[in-house]
Each structure stands twice: as structure tokens, then as C-alpha cells.
Amino acid sequence: MRLLLDTCTFLWLAGDPSRISEAARAAIDEPSNTLYLSDVSVWEMVLKNAAGKLPLPQKPRKWIPKQTAFFQIERVPIEPDALFRSGELPRLHAVPFDRLLCAQAIAEPFHVVTPDASIRLLGASCIW
Is the dihedral of CA 110, 119, 24, 12 positive or negative? Predict the structure, then answer.
């Protein structure tokens, strides 16, 4: 399976794995599954860190690549189709980062590893 980590899931994997559900942990630990992190999540972490809302052990430019390499997480770039699709999704959830992540998950497709039920409401397949 192709697993797209939500921002909070990535942060918990790297810093507090006890917050990840058993089902999500089993999927992450399954060797046949591939882990992905979207540029959307990187952008979200960078902006929140710069605003003082997300403290990280190091600068995002250094810490995020270190964690993605350690956990063997592949990158998902933001493609124009996902940008268009994010605007076409139902207006059930207004957070742009989540809408874009969901659009990527639907287009690729990925299973999103997230506790956020609104991602499922927007139409993405989710694991938690």
C-alpha cells in the first residue's frame, strides 16, 4: 500500500510514536507498504514553525529531511491537478493544507494515515 502521512502523523512518528493508533502503526510498520510525505505537509510545518506554533528540535530545513531519510519516506510534489482538485472538493473542510493533501490522496491514489475524520469526509481513503 501507498501510505501518505498526514502532517501530525509524521510529527508523531518522528517525536511521539505512542500517539499513533495501533492500526496506523501496523500499516506504517508493514514492510510492503511505502511511506510518503507531501510537500503540502512540509510547507505546513515550515510555516507553523516560522510562526512559533510548531517547535522543532532543529530548523525545518535540516530536521524534516533527516526524519524522512531515517524513516525512508518518499516525497510527493504538489502537482497542478491536485491544486485544481482541492478547489473542486466539497466545502466540508476549509483548511487549505488538508484539502490539498486530500486532493493528492484521491489523485494518486494514497491511503492517508491520519486521525482527522474530515479527510475521510472529503473522499480520501484513510487509516487510523
Answer: positive
Query: Tell me: the pLDDT tens digits for 85-105?
Result: 998 998 877 788 999 999 999
Distances (CA, A) of 124 to 13, 26, 43, 97, 103: 21, 19, 20, 14, 8
Q: How far are the Cα atoms of 11, 17, 59, 68 from residue 63, in angstroms, in the given order?
A: 11, 17, 6, 9
In the prediction, which pLDDT does 102 show? 93
pLDDT for 1 beyond 90:
yes
Question: The whole model's pTM is what?
Answer: 0.94
Specify the residue for cell string 482541492.
Answer: 86
Nearest to 116 by CA among 104, 128, 100, 108: 128
Domains of the chain in start order, with CATH, are 2-127 (3.40.50.1010)
